[in-house]
Amino acid sequence: MNNNFESIRKLILHYTEIDDLEWKMCSDMFTVKQIKKKEIILFQGEICRNIYFVEKGLLRIYFMDHNDDEKTFHFALENTFATDYQSFLKETSADFYIQALENTTVIVITFEMLQLLYKNLRNGEKLGRLIAEDYFFLMNSKIKALYTETPLQRYNSMNANFPKILLRVPQHYIASYLNISPVHLSRLKYDAD
């Protein structure tokens, strides 16, 4: 068994049972990709063909607004997934870019592979549903926070959801994620300390 895949196995087990035979089938399909810092692995407008499970490193999911300013939507740290889910499932143009903020190691899951897992794993469809539900909750929470929480509440939530993120991500990306200016972020950091 490939020890490189233990982190994704633990995540699958968090959602559902998987026996050794099923796990062998999964791990035989996985491929590992090394992404260099600043490399973009998905461009807005392309069709998203993969789900990326972050083994080591950090990905940023962002989009360009109508003024061509980058808006950070999400960070994918170790043991989480990154994708443009709608583009991936519907084979439509991606709304997001995905970029590595550090040298990053990901496990790549293709659409075809996902369909095989749904079909051949005893709990494959359950696994897919639970991951999709978590993705929906994540998106829903992000949108709701923008409308109902103060910048300080969003800042505190970010620190709870992404431990040590301030040490790993440039300040302007953090400010963009929080939907505030870098100057406002400096004040928030001062107030929070």
Structure keywords:
9 helices; 21% strand; single chain; 8 strands; 193 residues; four-stranded antiparallel sheet
Number of strands: 8
Low-pLDDT regions: none
User: How widely separated are the two ends?
Assistant: 46 Å
Number of helices: 9
Characterize the overall form.
Answer: globular
SSE pattern, N- to C-terminal? HHEEEEEEHEEHHHHHH
Q: Strands across the major sheet, in which order?
A: 1-8-3-6
**Structural class assignment:** alpha+beta
Helical coverage, percent range: 40-55%
Radius of gyration: 17 Å
Mean of pLDDT:
91
Largest sheet properties = 4 strands, antiparallel
What does this structure look like?
By secondary structure, the chain is of the alpha+beta class. The chain has helices spanning 6-15, 20-29, 85-90, 111-120, 124-148, 151-161, 165-168, 171-178, 182-192; strands at residues 31-35, 40-42, 50-56, 59-64, 70-76, 81-82, 97-100, 104-110. The strands form two sheets. It has a four-stranded antiparallel β-sheet with strand order 1-8-3-6. Helix 6 (151-161) packs across helix 9. The mean pLDDT is 91.
